[in-house]
Amino acid sequence: MIMLGVDDANGAVEFYRNVLGFELTTRFEGFAFFNAGGVTLALNEGLARAIPHKTGAVEVILPCENVRTAHAALAAKGVKFLKAPAEVSPGQWAANLKDPDGHILTLFGPA
Questions:
Q1: Are 1-52 and 55-111 the same fold in CATH?
Q2: Helices (H), the chain
Q3: In this structure, which topology does domain 55-111 adopt according to CATH?
Q4: What predicted TM-score, i.e. pTM, was given to this entire model?
Q5: Which of 16, 40, 77, 110 would bridge 1 by S-S if both were Cys, CB 3.0 to 4.6 A apart?
Q6: In which order are the strands placed within the sheet that holds 92-98?
Q7: Which of 15-18's residues contact partners 24+ apart within 8 Å by CB, and which partners?
Q8: What pLDDT digit, counting tens, does each position of 35-71 carry?
């Protein structure tokens, strides 16, 4: 399980469910839980309040079948990327973005 502190659970749910397409499995006040393909991604407003500097040297890697296709689909939904798709190792590509709370997310997989 990965838990991220978020300022606004409603806005974060909108992003992870409707933009990234994660399956929302449980939701209650200040919390949301998603099936993120073999791991549970939890969003927690209380964690963001308890730890004021909530982002740091953390990167959530999101495996995908085609980085360029995923990048294009998310860009069409208005997602702004920090780095466009680029080959990071032979045959493996990555593209970086931030969620609404500033957490770094990386699409990773074949071009």
A1: yes
A2: 9-13, 45-50, 67-76
A3: 2,3-Dihydroxybiphenyl 1,2-Dioxygenase; domain 1 (3.10.180)
A4: 0.88
A5: 40
A6: 59-63, 104-109, 92-98, 81-89
A7: 15/99, 15/100, 16/41, 16/43, 16/99
A8: 998 899 999 999 888 887 766 677 899 999 999 999 9
